[in-house]
Amino acid sequence: MPPFYKRLHRKKDGRELFLYGLMPLEGPPLPEHAEPFRP
After folding, report:
1. How far apart are CA 24 and CA 15, in angstroms?
2. Segments of the chain scoring below 50 in pLDDT
3. Rounded-to-integer distance, Cα 29 and Cα 27, Å
4. Is the dihedral of CA 18, 20, 21, 24 positive or negative?
5. What span, in angstroms and rounded, lies between the C-alpha atoms of 5 and 20?
6. What predicted TM-score, i.e. pTM, was given to this entire model?
7. Kind of pairing, strands 16-21 and 35-37?
8. CA–CA distance, 8 with 10 (Å, rounded to integer)
9. What pLDDT was estimated at residue 4?
10. What are the DSSP calls for 1-39, one per residue?
11. Is 30 exposed, middle or buried (0-12, 13-18, 19+ CB in 10 A)?
12. Facing residues of 9 across strands?
């Protein structure tokens, strides 16, 4: 099962930070271009 994500915010350069989670939090499975954020 692929990780799901919650988008945290969009960076100034257009990239987005995502928070990994085991349950679907928001949106589809993590896109390949996503920049993951792990606290």
Report:
1. 21
2. 1
3. 7
4. positive
5. 5
6. 0.26
7. parallel
8. 7
9. 57
10. -PPEEEEEEE-TTS-EEEEEESS--SSSSPPTT-EEE--
11. middle
12. 17
| HSE-up of residue 16 (Cα within 13 Å, Cβ side) | 13
Q: Half-sphere exposure of residue 12, counting CA atoms within 13 Å on the CB side?
A: 0
CA distance 23 to 27: 11
* Joined tokens for residue 9: 């915010």
Cross-strand pairs, 36: 18
> What's the token pair of residue 17?
């930070």
Rounded Cα–Cα distance for residues 17 and 7 (Å): 6
Q: State the pLDDT at residue 34.
A: 60
